[in-house]
Design brief:
The chain is mainly beta. It is built from two helices and 28 strands.
């Protein structure tokens, strides 16, 4: 009897250790490879460049004892390890924006910045200005993508004459000439806003935002004609809105949004129909993209990893204010944002690079995206064996000693 009790105790301890280690292993973010802080003020966008480095867009400012002034659009180019290659600001004489909301690496390996007021700036690979345009739209925010034919499409929200906001999408060619612009508004709705956008698989454009108190998804043709127009209500309390959109491997989209209580992730099909949606109370993020394993990574104040149906796998609170996250070409993640300096009197830009979550195979190669690490399956089998053994042992004990 003592031997059996000792055996049962050992099994219980092993099972407890397994359970704790299994939960711990599935809840840890990947290893941080490097963490950089740069002189600056705010980060709005981060991309990985063709050479494996990074481009960071946002705002720079001059700090004095009286506070900040001289706010200027900023672009920083780094190496793959986050070391600065060059950083530039662009004087207000080149446009009305004090901040770059998005950066795109162009076909010629230069960069396109966009900002307030319909301001668009094209620079070469060293950050030198090639052309600058301000289109006169009263845009509060402005986001850009380069299309498959080399043009650019930009979306944002603009003030209207009724102290509200309307959505605007416009297209320019590679030299900044305006091709068309489309405004989306409703006299019965005070606030209509367009956030980020993507080019669809059939070379149309999809974007998200809000239509009054509803989250909004729309698709337009390559000439700006409305093709799909969908609204969504996650909460009857109002404040429903989508922030960002990214394409997924199945031709659909992952979008981020919020209501007045929670932030949301939603998976849409190619027509904008919701396949699943999930609120995350106590989390804070604005951007999500598909991860190499088919799940999704969301970035902002929280770095959140979920599986393909939105169940949380791990989360990590980022330093300061987080604004964006991307999947890097090695299967890892990079997140960016801004924070107060160590002495608390200045604001600085930061970027964190995380390693890939993928297991490394014996040949040194990472598994394909549809493969997964055998760790969970193996340990589930081990858990079943341990539980079954303990259960059989308990039955034997009860039968032998309780009669």
């Amino acid at each position: 009897m003592l031997n059996f009790r000792w055996f049962s105790t050992v099994l219980f301890i092993l099972l407890a250790i397994f359970s704790l280690s299994f939960v711990w292993a599935l809840s840890q973010p990947p290893e941080v490879q490097w963490n950089r802080v740069y002189n600056g003020y705010e980060t709005q966008d981060l991309i990985q460049t063709a050479d494996g480095g990074y481009a960071i867009a946002g705002m720079n400012a001059t700090y004095t004892l009286r506070g900040y002034n001289y706010f200027l659009p900023m672009l920083i180019k780094t190496t793959s390890l986050g070391e600065i290659e060059w950083g530039k600001t662009y004087d207000s004489k080149f446009g009305v924006s004090r901040e770059a909301f998005s950066v795109v690496q162009t076909r010629d390996l230069g960069y396109l910045l966009s900002g307030r007021g319909g301001w668009v700036l094209k620079v070469n690979s060293h950050g030198d200005i090639q052309w600058n345009k301000t289109f006169g739209f009263s845009l509060i925010e402005c986001y850009a993508i380069q299309t498959s034919n080399g043009d650019f499409v930009l979306s944002g929200l603009m003030t209207n004459n009724n102290n509200g906001e309307d959505a605007l999408v416009f297209k320019i060619d590679a030299m900044g000439n305006l091709l068309w612009n489309k405004e989306f508004s409703d006299p019965s709705v005070q606030f209509v806003a367009a956030g980020k956008l993507v080019e669809t698989t059939d070379q149309n454009y999809a974007f998200v935002g809000n239509w009054g108190n509803y989250a909004w998804f729309a698709q337009i043709s390559s000439t700006g004609d409305l093709q799909i127009n969908q609204t969504y209500q996650f909460s009857s309390n109002g404040g429903n809105s989508f922030f960002s959109i990214a394409k997924t491997n199945d031709g659909g989209y992952v979008v981020t949004g919020n209501d007045r209580q929670s932030v949301w992730l939603a998976k849409l099909d190619s027509e904008g129909t919701i396949q699943w949606s999930q609120p995350y109370q106590g989390k804070s993020f604005r951007v999500a993209v598909q991860a190499p394993d088919g799940g999704y990574i969301a970035g902002g104040g929280t770095l959140l990893k979920v599986n393909a149906t939105g169940r949380i796998e791990w989360s990590n609170v980022t330093s300061g204010v987080g604004t964006t996250v991307i999947v890097t070409n090695d299967g890892g993640y990079a997140a960016a944002g801004f924070e107060s300096s160590s002495n608390g009197d200045m604001q600085e830009v930061w970027v964190i690079k995380f390693a890939s979550e993928s297991a490394i195979l014996p040949d040194g190669k990472a598994p394909l995206p549809d493969e997964s690490s055998p760790f969970p399956t193996i340990w589930i089998v081990v858990a079943v064996i341990i539980v079954a053994t303990a259960g059989i042992g308990l039955l034997v004990y009860l039968k032998k000693y309780k009669h």
